[in-house]
Write a structure and sequence with these properties.
Organism: Staphylotrichum tortipilum
Radius of gyration: 20 Å
Number of domains: 2
Helix content: 25-40%
Low-confidence stretches: 1-26
Keywords: Oxidoreductase
Strand content: 15-25%
InterPro entries: ADH-like_C (IPR013149), ADH-like_N (IPR013154), ER (IPR020843), GroES-like_sf (IPR011032), NAD(P)-bd_dom_sf (IPR036291), Trans-enoyl_RdTase-like (IPR047122)
Shape: globular
Number of strands: 13
GO molecular function: oxidoreductase activity, acting on NAD(P)H
CATH architecture of the largest domain: Alpha-Beta Complex
CATH topology of the largest domain: Quinone Oxidoreductase, Chain A, domain 1
Structural class: alpha/beta
Distance between the termini: 17 Å
CATH superfamily of the largest domain: Medium-chain alcohol dehydrogenases, catalytic domain
Order of helices and strands: HHEHEEHEEHHEHEHEHEHEEHHEHE
Bound molecules: NADP nicotinamide-adenine-dinucleotide phosphate
Family: Belongs to the zinc-containing alcohol dehydrogenase family.
Length: 358
């Protein structure tokens, strides 16, 4: 029998793109449709948990990152491998896996997250150890992938503590917005890369958690003296800021970051997630680059594989990398509408997740 939501597929082509973007087509359109892998380097996952990212509601609201129609949203999935392409070397049928699906770049519906089965590339998949549940696993993919591009490509930190270009202990990094998905992953990657002095901003309720992730000092970004407090913390630690990952890149964060950096000598690099605003000038000694997290699915598959395939399972097992805190919305695929609305209104230190029953 045809699954109920699959019947909707027939309705899709006559509907205009603007109607789709207004949200008439529910996420989870292909409920029950099991696609095929069609590249040798892909895995097919039977999903157990899905997480929502800001880009999911933004795609629908603004029509961005939408290469083709019909459209299924979503990228972050955790599930069981049910098929592997002939070139897949690191995974087998039956493995528990987390991944970031690249439907928003490829336009292939089977690579979207908000459905029961998702095809994912081998490079952006990681085996999930037993100590990590589905809901926690689903929170990791896209936030971590974006932090990987930010920390290792844009800021140029080494993947291994003692590798080439190892980090000088006096050099510090600032993560602005360390309670969020990308920010919390960035703090942990910086620590794993050997940055001894990671500084961060977050709401006070998250300070302890962010310290546990690896920050030596965390400052409340709402404080009127936030810049002075960060500079004082860095000086207390005998460090200077050389790298910044602005994991918010909205409102006054660019101006605050520039203010902080003006207090330290030398060349500095900033990785930012949203476009640099015209009204904030870039100082000559600051190299600022927008992170393109989508590069984990293409040009920087190598970096993605180095983290997702080769390191993440062990990091999760040992607790060296801790997933975001999941906030489960009930209802499975039907809960995604509410999940998207919650995220659009804004979350604090949580990743919105749905779980799928089988
Ligand atoms: N360029 C790319 O490739 C790319 C990739 C992924 C995401 N993004 C974008 O990057 C942004 C972050 O994504 P995300 O998934 O990490 O979001 P998220 O997890 O939803 O971020 C939520 C967190 O943002 C923090 N926050 C909000 N305003 C802040 C401020 N002024 N200063 C410090 N922290 C602040 C909050 O911290 P508290 O709870 O401490 O208040 C909250 O915990 C989004 O706009 C997203 O669209 C871009």
């Amino acid at each position: 029998m045809q699954p109920p939501q699959a019947a909707l597929l027939g309705l899709v082509s006559p509907i205009s793109e603007s109607v789709l973007l207004a949200g008439v087509i529910n996420p989870g359109l292909r409920d029950g449709v099991r696609p095929e892998t069609n590249s040798p380097s892909e895995l097919l996952l039977q999903n157990h948990a899905l997480a929502v990212n800001p880009i999911d509601w933004k795609r629908r609201a603004f029509g961005i990152a939408t290469p083709s129609f019909p459209l299924i949203l979503g990228s972050d999935v955790a599930g069981t491998v049910v098929a592997v392409g002939e070139g897949v070397r690191k995974f087998r049928v039956g493995d528990r896996v987390l991944a970031s699906g690249d439907g928003m770049v490829s336009g292939r519906m089977e690579q979207a997250g908000f459905q029961r089965y998702t095809v994912v590339g081998e490079a952006v998949a990681a085996r999930v150890p037993k100590n990590v549940g589905w809901r926690e696993a689903a929170t990791v993919g896209t936030g971590l992938g974006t932090a990987v591009v930010g920390v290792f490509e844009v800021l140029g930190l080494p993947l291994e503590k003692d590798g080439d270009g190892g980090v000088n202990t006096g050099e510090g990094m600032l993560v602005w917005g360390a309670a969020g998905s990308v920010g919390s992953a960035a703090v942990q990657l910086a620590r794993l890369a050997g940055v001894g002095k990671v500084f961060a901003t977050a709401s006070p309720t998250h300070h302890e958690r962010v310290r546990k992730l690896g920050a030596v000092e965390v400052v409340d970004y709402r404080s009127e003296t936030v810049v002075e407090e960060i500079v004082a913390a860095v000086e207390r630690e005998g460090a200077k800021i050389r790298w910044v990952l602005d994991a918010v890149s909205e409102g006054d964060t660019f101006a605050r970051v520039v203010e902080v950096l003006s207090r330290f000598e030398g060349e500095k690099k900033v990785a930012h997630l949203l476009p640099w605003p015209e009204n904030v000038s870039k100082p000559a000694d600051v190299e600022a680059t927008r992170v393109n997290g989508g590069r984990i699915w293409g040009e920087r598959k190598d970096l993605a594989a180095a983290v997702f395939n080769d390191r993440l399972e062990k990091w999760l097992e040992t607790g060296e990398f801790v997933p975001s805190v999941p906030r489960v919305v009930e209802g499975g695929l039907e809960g995604l509408e509410e999940a998207l609305n919650i995220l659009r209104k804004g979350v604090s230190g949580e990743k919105v997740v749905v779980e799928l029953e089988w």
